[in-house]
Specification:
CATH superfamily: Putative cyclase
Order of helices and strands: HEEEEEHEHEHEEEHEHEEE
CATH topology: Glucose Oxidase, domain 1
Strand content: 25-35%
Structural class: alpha/beta
Length: 258
C-alpha cells in the first residue's frame, strides 16, 4: 500500500478527519472596513446569470463579485508594501500551501482582554512545552474569535477608537518573520493584525514583517478549537489569480485520530 493510498483509506475510515477551517462566503460575511479617506473592498455578492429560465433553461450560474481579501482568505506578499516585489497569489509554490499546524491557544487571555497581542515570550513558553516550531508550519493563533463570526458587529468589536481584536505584537511579528521557520500565520479574526495595530510602529506589523519576508497570512479561520496543538496538517487552496494580492480560500486540516 502506498502512502497516498493509505491516506485515502484513513480518510475514508475517519481515522484521519478532514476539518473544514473555512467561514461560509456570503453577503453577510464580515469584511474589513478601513476609516476614511481609505478605500474599502466590497462584500461578497452573487449576480444571477441564469437560473433555469429563458437565459439558460437547463443551467444555473452566477457572477461572483467580491474582493481578494474577503472572508477566509490568503494574504500574498504583494498585498503589502514590504512585499510588493514578492510573489502574487498565483506565484506561490503549491507545496508551501501544505504544512504542519502549530496551535497557540490564547483564548483565556483574549477573554480578559480583546486587545491581547502575542509576544515573543508567549511563543518561547509554547516552545518550552511543545518543542521548536516545525519547519514550514502554519502557526495558528487560537483566540475563540470565530465564535463571533455570525455577528458582524461583535466580530468587528469596534468603538470610537476603532476595532478591538487580538493579534501579534511588533516584536512577535518580527521574530516570526525573521527568526522562525513558519510558512505563515493563521487567525480567526478579520485580518492577521490586531485591531489596534494601526497605532503600532510599524503599523500592522504582521503584514509588514511576514509579507515582507515571503510568508503568508490566513484569516477568518473557523474550527480551530478542533485542532490539536501539534500533529495536524493544513491545506490552503486560494485561487491562482494572476497578479492577485490574495484570494478567498478553502482551508482545511487533516487530523489523525488513534
Amino acid at each position: 500500500m502506498t502512502t497516498l493510498t493509505d491516506l485515502l483509506t484513513k480518510i475514508g475510515s475517519k481515522s484521519i478527519e478532514v476539518v473544514d477551517l473555512t467561514a461560509p462566503l456570503s453577503a453577510q460575511t464580515p469584511v474589513l472596513h478601513l476609516p476614511e479617506p481609505f478605500a474599502n473592498t466590497i462584500p461578497a455578492q452573487l449576480e444571477t446569470v441564469s437560473n433555469f429560465d429563458d437565459d439558460g433553461p437547463m443551467w444555473a450560474w452566477n457572477n461572483l463579485h467580491t474582493g481578494e481579501h474577503t472572508g477566509t482568505h490568503l494574504d500574498a506578499p504583494t498585498h503589502w508594501i514590504t512585499g510588493r516585489d514578492g510573489a502574487s497569489v498565483d506565484q506561490i509554490p503549491p507545496e508551501r500551501l501544505i504544512g504542519p499546524v502549530a496551535v497557540v491557544d490564547v483564548t483565556a487571555e483574549v477573554e480578559r482582554n480583546p486587545d491581547f497581542v502575542l509576544e515573543v515570550e508567549h511563543i518561547e513558553a509554547w516552545e518550552a512545552e511543545n518543542g521548536p516550531l516545525p519547519d514550514g508550519a502554519w502557526l495558528i493563533l487560537r483566540t475563540g474569535w470565530a465564535e463571533r463570526g455570525s455577528d458582524p458587529a461583535r466580530f468587528a468589536n469596534a468603538d470610537a477608537d476603532g476595532p478591538h481584536t487580538p493579534g501579534v505584537s511588533v516584536a512577535a511579528a518580527k521574530w516570526l518573520a525573521e527568526q522562525s521557520p513558519i510558512t505563515g500565520l493563521g487567525v480567526e479574526t478579520v485580518g492577521i493584525d490586531a485591531g489596534i495595530a494601526g497605532t503600532f510602529d510599524p503599523m500592522f506589523p504582521a503584514h509588514y514583517y511576514l509579507l515582507g519576508n515571503d510568508k503568508y497570512g490566513l484569516t477568518q479561520l473557523r474550527g480551530v478549537d478542533r485542532l490539536p496543538t501539534l500533529g495536524a496538517v493544513l491545506v490552503a487552496s486560494p485561487l491562482p489569480i494572476v497578479g492577485g494580492t490574495g484570494s478567498p480560500a478553502r482551508v482545511f486540516a487533516l487530523v489523525e485520530h488513534p
